[in-house]
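Students often ask why we bother encoding 3D structure as a string. The short answer is that it lets us treat folding as translation between two languages. Here is a chain of 231 residues written in the first language.
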Amino acid sequence: MLWVVLGLIGLGAILLVLNDSSGSTFGIANGDFGQLVWVGALMLVLGAGILRSGRSFGTVTRQLGGWALIALMLVAGYQYRYELQDVASRVTAGLIPGSPLSVSDQDGRAAVTLDKGASGHFEARILVNGKPVRALVDTGASATVLTAEDARAAGIDLASLNYTVPVYTANGTARAAAARVEELALGGIVRRNTTVLVAAPGALPQSLLGMSFIGSLSGFDVRGDRMILRD
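And here it is in the second language, the structure alphabet:
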């Protein structure tokens, strides 16, 4: 059977080479003929395996049907992968406070929805250099500000910072230091090689997602208990 399969593939390859200039083999387009050769070889291998297994026709049919169903589910999952991602985002947003619900509009731009937390404020689970940070959305903050603990977790060297920058937040004024991060992401909205501020240790109870990030968006609005941010 091995030699039969190899001979079939070899014969098909020779015919494709000889008929390359004409574009067809036996009246079949060369691309379709090549696929036909591979399908024929695969069917021969499957048929030989079924015959040598000694199993009944009904058992083999059920097993093939099961594998066909699995293949169909995999193809359907791939085709609807974006819709499934949206469903997963909605479930996560409902289970984990601050988790962003990220979808794409008709232009392919990301739009992120945040639900108001139990505290009455909008919180967001952002990623700083790939590390999760729980941040308060603060339009009164001039910049995105990380607590010292969150900055350290994101890989920022605190010892090299100079806390001389005044930061005006909804809770008052704090001292912070400027730092660069490789990536800051809120759901599907990503900003790379951007500047953030790091608050002095103990100066800020929670990281803030401020106007340095929000101001880079095309727009945002609040609808009841939901905030929608658009890239």
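Translate back mentally: The two ends are 58 Å apart (CA to CA). Keep this in mind for the problem set.
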